[in-house]
Specification:
Elements (H helix, E strand, L loop, with lengths): L4 E4 L17 E15 L2 E15 L11 E8 L7 E3 L3 E12 L2 E8 L7
Antiparallel strand pairs: 1-2, 1-6, 2-3, 3-4, 3-5, 4-7, 6-7
Length: 118
């Protein structure tokens, strides 16, 4: 599941809604990819989506410093339209480690990209 870890910008913070107006990243796991074709004006156009399970951000996401971010380990964004992510909205993959912070399980992530994400 290492290669399925992604940073993307698509989900809003609540109710599985979409956030298409700003660039707010979340960490998530790609469960599977699928393609959809539609006939537009006599031409078939194909779109590729990822079904994603996104982590909720921690109350103190910057506690370990940049470029790491802390997320809730077993608390995910609500299911809804944001779960189906156009692959173009995937920014990069991330490396992760599970840790215990004040008795609560967290996941600490680091982007696998040379750009500064946050």
């Amino acid at each position: 599941m290492r290669s399925a870890r992604i940073y993307a910008s698509w989900a809003a913070a609540d109710q599985g809604a979409l956030n298409v107006n700003s660039l707010v990243f979340f960490a998530g796991y790609v469960l599977y990819y699928f393609s959809h074709s539609i006939n537009l004006n006599g031409k078939f156009v194909q779109y590729v989506f990822a079904c994603v399970l996104g982590h909720k951000p921690d109350e103190n996401p910057d506690q370990f410093g940049n470029p790491t971010k802390t997320w809730k380990l077993n608390d995910f964004l609500a299911h809804g339209p944001s779960r189906f992510l156009p692959v173009q909205r995937i920014y990069c993959r991330f490396a992760a480690a599970e840790t215990l912070v004040e008795g609560e399980k967290k996941i600490v992530t680091v982007p696998l990209d040379s750009k500064n994400l946050f």
